[in-house]
Amino acid sequence: MSTQQKQIHLAAHFPGVNNTTVWSDPEAGSHIAFDSFARFARTAERARFDFLFLAEGLRLREQGGRIYDLDVVGRPDTFTVLAALAAVTDRIGLAGTINSTFNEPYEVARQFASLDHLSAGRAAWNVVTSWDAFTGENFRRGGFLEQGDRYTRAEQFLRTAQELFDSWRGDEVAADRSTGRFLTGPGAGAFRHEDEHFAIEGRFNVPRSPQGRPVVFQAGDSDDGREFAARSADAIFSRHAELAAGQAFYRDVKGRLARYGRAPEELLILPAATFVLGDTDDEAQDAAREVRRAQVSGQTAIKLLEQVWNRDLSAYDPEGPLPDVDPDPGEHTLARGRASVRMVRDPLAVAREYRELAAAEHLSIRDLVIRTSARQTFIGSPATVADAIDAYVQADASDGFILVPHVTPGGLDAFADTVVPLLQERGVFRTEYAGTTLRDHLGLPPRP
């Protein structure tokens, strides 16, 4: 076995209710009951995954003034779920998305430091921003920031939180961890920070946690987002799951690290990936087609097309041809809520492309939406999927994947039972955890 083989990083995303999830599948369970989260986390830990990831939804999506049909369950609070999962798992990392636009550094730092203590060093923070005034209506700080400003706030938010984490030094703490009593030096927890967004001063009341700081993830794909990740993140979530695009993204982001004095291995690149398994490749392809049609019902197809057309298309037959009217290129008001809205810069051009594709392949509205919306990343037998994942990582298109099953909570089981053992046999994925913290799992240097 070549010593040059990269080790693959795998994580699992609990997706909630969206157009990836087949919530109508008989095997699908609750997306809010704790038993679902616990089963999912235990499966990922049994498979020796690096971490479990929870996204964040701060407002239900709306379309045409109504709650979007795939989002009616909403999302429970990320910190609450991760803290509960810390009690029923031992090693798997616990990563959560927390918004830097609508929160405050002291509050978030305190929550993550607490989670890192409760989990014995398994906490991770996906730092995101939001421009969405619709979501911002839930908060005092509505959607008032331009893109450049929101990344400035995010960087200052993260820097402020890190100052709070670092306000406790090891030599200032003599701890009896069985009682939680701490004897501290005169400067322990003291902080003062002032910039254009924050002016805070006081003492941080959670002593330094096992990782020192939580692992920091970032998900932006813009140039600002990539630069933010190169400066500040330990891992970046990528949208590029195709080989050539993945390699280009990998080269670009890794190439930015040197200017900040960082080595390539200090930032992991992890695309989201879906999968459909079968006993044979043909069986998996048949199953994948069924999954896509279950993900995109006729009603969902109309809703997704409305996000491009910016018009009410409810009168159209989803099994019929595309609308004969053009999109409304005005300000997007039909669909509200960032997670549900495609960022379509030129809807008229997109409509032309869609019409040409539909005419060439004789596609209905539903067929077209299935054809053009998110596709499965890995389809095949366990051996085929293991081959594809390994080839992608060894080709420097990523450092691993965040897997998004289409059924929760049991959709990860088959992957854990069939694909993971094949990767372990190749020597590219761990058979046991080598350390106890998430930084250990990811091969990241410890924080001082």
Automatic annotation (TrEMBL):
Residues that coordinate or bind FMN: 97, 151, 222
Keyword terms, alphabetized: Flavoprotein, FMN, Monooxygenase, Oxidoreductase
A Pfam family: Bac_luciferase
Entries under SUPFAM superfamilies matching the protein: Bacterial luciferase-like (SSF51679)
CDD domains attached to this UniProt entry: Nitrilotriacetate_monoxgenase
UniProt domain Luciferase-like: residue ranges: 23-395
Gene Ontology MF terms in the entry: monooxygenase activity; oxidoreductase activity, acting on paired donors, with incorporation or reduction of molecular oxygen
Family statement drawn from the similarity comment of this UniProt entry: Belongs to the NtaA/SnaA/DszA monooxygenase family.
Name of the protein: Putative FMNH2-utilizing oxygenase
Source organism: Actinacidiphila reveromycinica
